[in-house]
Design brief:
heterotrimer, A: 418 residues, alpha/beta, 8-stranded mixed sheet, 6-stranded mixed sheet, 12 helices, 16 strands, C: 286 residues, mainly alpha, ABC transporter involved in vitamin B12 uptake, BtuC, two-stranded antiparallel sheet, 2 strands, globular
Amino acid sequence: MDRRTFLKSSVALAAVGTVAMPYVARAQGTGPIKIGLMAPLTGVVASGGREMVDGFNMYLDEKGGMMGGRKVELIVEDDGANPDMALQKARRLVEQNGVSMLCGNLLANTGLAVANYVKGNGMPYFIPIIAADELTQRNRIKNVVRVAGYTGSQFPRPLADWCLKQGYKKAATISQDYTFGQEQCGGFCQTFTEGGGTIAGQFWHPLNTSDFSPYLGQLANLGVDVIFAMETGADATRFMQQYSNFGLKGQIPLVGAMNMTDQSVIRTMGSEAEGVIVAAHFAEGSPAPVTKTFVEAHMKKYNKYPSLYGFSMYSGAMWLDEAAKSIGGKVEDREAFLAAVSKTELTGSPLGQTVKLDAYGNPIYDVHIRKVVKNADGKLWNAPIANYPAVSQFWTYNPETYMKQPPYSRDFQGIKKG
Amino acid sequence: MTPAPTPAAAGKPSFMPRLGLAAVILGTLFFAIAPLLVPTYQISILTEVLIYAVLAMSVDILAGYTGRTPLCLGAVFGVSTYVTVYWTSTMGGSPYTGMMLGILAATLVAAIFAILAIRTTGVYFLLLTLALGMIIWGICLRWTSVTGGENGLRGAVRPAELAAHMPFYYVVFVAVAIITFIMWRFVRSPFGLTLRGIRDSDSRMRSLGYNVSLHMFIAFTVAGVFAGVAGALYAMFNDFVSPSTVALTQSVEGLLMAITGGVGTLFGSFIGALAIIGLENAVSIYTERWQTVLGLVFIFIMIFAPDGILGGIKTLLARKRG
Amino acid sequence: MSSLNTFQLLNGLTFAALLFIVASGFTLIFGLLRIVNLAHGALYLLGGYCAYAMASTTGSFMVGILAAMAAVAVTGLILDQGLLRFVRGHELRQVLLTLGVGLVLNDMMLVVFGGDTYTVPAPEFLQGALRFAGMFYPKYRLFVLALGVLIFILLWVLLNKTRLGALIRAGVDDPETIAALGINIRRIFLLTFMLGAALAGLGGAVGGAFLTLYPSADAEILVFSLAVVIIGGRGSLVGAAVGALMVGMLNTVGQVMFPEFAYFVIFGPMAAILAFRPLGLFGRTA
């Protein structure tokens, strides 16, 4: 089979045909840094995947296509939002293209499949979007690092605390039925019930539920003070629309996971999304000067506000760049590079705060409670209304005791019976 | 699919045995030597080709030899993958027992499907099997406590000594060679000839006193066994399973491979699998529009080459000689 | 927490109404032309995107619906005359060809519209909820229910009270006789194909306003429509209505009461029906 390599450093797009050649030996610090970037460019979450690539490229473009003093050869592969395909592409990037690191993937299932693969061969794998708790907790894989990402249960905890402060006592959750959703709901439920609240009901629906009416019917009858919803992509759009159409908006306050009110969702929506409150490290409507600069630059380049996907990949690229710089660009030395990534403290990110990793490879953030509002241009965005400093994936718990409890699942939500 | 142009009355394979033998030897040689000539990554692609060829052959048993086109064997394949991975990861069992259980489960599912589907023919058979496959997919997706839902299951099926691509390839190669031989004997057996009789005329076989339903049931179940074998090998290949392994696309691709090779030719499945997987890999390097290419291939084959590659060659040869 | 009430009943009914609109087009084509059009879902999605584009530029929901129906009918015309004519008479080749067309159309729509989720803007008077019997219910869904009933009546009148309908019905039962009578059966076939496609477009426009439009919406609606037609039987309008009601209700029941086996609840009964009545509840042998 004829082998071709997809080159995409800065703007160059060159196809180089080569005859069968044993896979590229690791050259120490010469030539470009080869990075394999995987994102779902087709399938259900294709728009998020596109923004991931845009975010990474935006950073590279700003730096003239360089990282750690070397040219970057970015090889972009479509994972099709499908774990089998992600696995195949990861193999190709590592075994055929000879990349020095893998980066990306959006859906947890694709990330877990790739993580299972790199576990065996030690390839550094960076996951700014994949939030599966496990990967930086109980089943930690040393060469898998969540640069500029977050875990599923990390942000819902401060949100639950905020809800309790508003006087909400009784909550219900609705979520997509997969690990990411179970973790977010688990984080919310555990903190909410430990603070004295109760959970009146939990609903799990499959990804891509076109019709939420069966669930909304049940939610409306529970008599709760607040509803926590964990939705991504098209489900998020539909959920908020139908929530409003069924007359629940304005009756029961809606809070949720940050991905529900991400730009990738609300930019095609109207007033249905207004007023929804979530917790997140990033808020595009933040008045912090660095955030403003980044948001404006993104607007100028892509004519839209940055989404979580674009922002995270941009910051992730920055993180890798900083780490590469600290070891003189020698990223092929995996041990040294991974150590450098772990030590790096990110100061220049659009968050406007210093970010560092905890001992388990997951970042610690100041978390905003943010609300969807219309801005001066008449567009929806997330504006911060409260702040929780230095929130780690372990919240207020001791990591070791915390990890003794089982991972969140549909059956274990950390709910404290009171 | 329209049945391949085999003279149904004749008991012999339709084209010159010597030529056929030469082609089989050539094909075997190709798959035996190819991994020595290509870079590591392509060895894993070739492994996939062999595994999918078995799936395509199982599709061919139904589509080519009984004249009923199934759209559920991808799901049957996936059942085997799920059970194998589940056995090794969640239950912590041995991979070989896991694979046996996987094949057994696939056989069982196929037998149940067979009972439901054998009364139907033509598009109804296609639609019913499609729906049955969807049930499997729906269960794998939603029965989170067992199947891991959307995230699937990560397994430990592949033993350490087979971790490298090369040894694993040859294990699969030997396994597939044996399976292919068995399938070939199966379709050429008197039983296989009866199936062709059913394909050509259901009612004639019935009036000749054949128990058509029983024959269909057995054929369907046997196809399930082989799909299960492929699925178990796939579990070992990927060490991972998720709903996309039992999705409709799996059945569709299996069918497309069988058709591209030529239905009713059995060995055509290897050509079909090689063509489709090769194309997929080549195309995805240049463009993200793999789905469009796949669709165009479908349209093209349906309009211009419904007999597939091997079927087309056979027709050509038959025309020349005849 | 898993109770069924009026509210859930209405949910099932309104979803069934949408399914009926889409599946009636499917069953017409299947009944008369013997084509299982697996591109029907893609036509639905195409209709939705057209309606979205037109309705948001002109500001009129009505224009959006008409544009969707017209555009999809034309697509149907091209599909029938441009591709399907080459495989006439080969049932399975037709099915697999439309499967290929569906894949291509779906991917092309992803190129044109991107992966973002769109909603066809519904007119002002259909937004919000009605309050009755002590509960809120979205006006739009009630509109879909009414539209489903209206389409059923229109199609029933068309099939049973007009000359064209008589010809179509005769064509479903006995295409040879119709042709022998010297009637241009091809033209009736083509008209039916376009009508069936237009119904998919209408479904997309209407469904796109409450179920939204996104890259895999076509496959979902296709699977549901298949279930409806398989249950109802090829070419039967009443069958499509009964099938839609069954699938709509089972979908709601499944989601509420057996979330882990929701698909089984829909497709299990379908498989059972097909196993015992291979031609569906209202299907007749040709």
